[in-house]
What does this fold into?
Amino acid sequence: MSMSRHVPPDDRLAGINLELTQVGSRPISSDSTPSERPHGDPEGRRPARARAQRLAEAARLAELVAILAGEAGVDAAEAWELAKSLGKAEQADLLRSYGRVEPRKRFKGGPISRVPEADVNRLYIDESGKSGIGHGEPWQVFSLAGIAMKSGHAMSFRARADELKVRHFGSSSFTFHEPEMRRGHGRYAFDGDRSRADAFANDLNDLVRETPFTAFGVGVRKAAFRDQFLDTGRDPYLPTDVYALAIQMLLERYVDFLATTNGQRSLAQVVFESQGPLEDAVHQRDYVRVLIEGTQWVADGAFRDWLQTGVRFTPKQGSDPMELADMLSRDLYEWVRDDCANAPGRWPVLSQKIYCRDDRQLGKFGVKVFPDSDIRDQIQAHRAISGPSKN
It folds into this structure.
């Protein structure tokens, strides 16, 4: 990109800054022309969403200019101001296209109700990919999936899963695990008998479809997260650790579900797959930090009002709801890896279990992809056909 020689760089940036701030903050009025307000979109949400995407890209370019200018010893203050203004303009258009941002302290507490053990809600969490981040990292996506299920329904799932395993494999003393099922390896090869493999797949899909649970997930696109946020310092409030980021976003959506769908307040429990003493300790630390500090979008008190302060760790063994979390995390990983354009494995079945509320925006949908500025249309199309789920 060339720059006119007779225009001082600072003046040029200031002019762009003012112009884009005015454009980004312009309201979509009721007398907008048809070209500004497409048919079937009376509030102009589609053009606002398109502007937000362009503004996000422009903000990243402005941040890059600021970084390069700083490295060259040039005053980059104007470039950083431009990036900040572009970010504010993007948020304004996102608000217009996706709806109102709810208050951070929107979830109210109240007295805790004692519920029978069968009605205790638990969130079973599993992951796919690696949470480490860096240049040359082969795993460019990290997914964290959660299956919310009442204890009574978990017991029913275990019994049905055992029965299915015995029927197809003659034993229930093993655990369903991706990607062996997807690849047809080991016992899932069925000695090359396609009809047996299809019968198992159909029965497993029926088990997933008929089991009462609610699905949650976070897919972090690690390269984009590094380039757009870590390297630029764009959002100082975001965790720099991928796993900590994912658990925050997952718990935000789980608490939204608990606070808006339960008639009475009772404390839910989070269950992680056990991965070893150190890993378990780190995961518990990240969980407790959310309960103590909260997040940008949900106050700390809301997490403590709806979640038990302690977590459980369980290894993968036998029939357990963690098997469902394993299936969901793998399908979510592949879906995000393919820029949310395909439907891997059991994704169409699992998508019908995803939590959704009201307009399904800004934390009211159970699956979050981050960052997502370049694939929002695909994500919106998926949200439109997902859920609703009932627990």
Remarks:
- Residues 1-42 have pLDDT under 50 and may be disordered.
- The CA atoms of residues 145 and 228 lie 24 Å apart.
- DSSP finds 13 helices and six strands in the chain.
